[in-house]
Specification:
The chain is an alpha/beta fold. It has one domain: P-loop containing nucleotide triphosphate hydrolases (Rossmann fold, 3-Layer(aba) Sandwich), CATH 3.40.50. The protein is 51% helix and 13% strand. It contains 9 helices and 5 strands, in the order E-H-E-H-H-H-H-H-H-E-E-H-H-E. It has a 5-stranded parallel sheet, with helices on both faces. Helix 2 crosses helix 5, helix 3 runs antiparallel to helix 5 and helix 8 packs across helix 9. It is globular, with a radius of gyration of 18 Å.
Amino acid sequence: MTNYHFIRAAVTGPIASGKTTVCQQLQNKGSIIISWDKVYAKLLQTDEILQRRLRQAFLIPNNQVILPFLKKTIFNQNGGYNVQALKLLNSITHPIIAKKAFIKEKSLVVNYDKRGQQTSNPDDLYPLVVHEVPLLYQSHLDKKFDRIYICLTSNSTLLQRVMKRDKLTKSQAQARIDASQFNFPIHDAKVIVVNN
């Protein structure tokens, strides 16, 4: 268990593996959902320190919007991606996103605190706080969670979804899938595998 009176879960998996769908299903059952993509999007608009660090690290001109520039820098038009650039991006953004997400988490669960102390069965009354974290294991944050849902599906399904959703060619879509893949520890005791 975490230090607060709730169960902290993460939903992770490759791009287009159905993470958001699983979060919606959990939300329908009463879970609190925190999307790290949404936290990141807001930080890109409001956090001047993050903006400055990204512009300096990737030499982004002041007249350029940060996110499209980063995508062009990391993923090339013909497929493939820049591993070092992606690692640099993650090293800058992930600690800031995590800090903001956990601050948000604390504010969302404060009303459950006393209620959680009165139960002997945490699954009955402790809220399930679910973080949608695309690169959980790559960020080495898995130990911060009590339960992990790993969304998996076939590469052909991922390709179809990414190509349709993001209007990309097959090679461009495959590059994004490759960048989000990981040797997921599906036999870990706290892991629940969701096949989408």
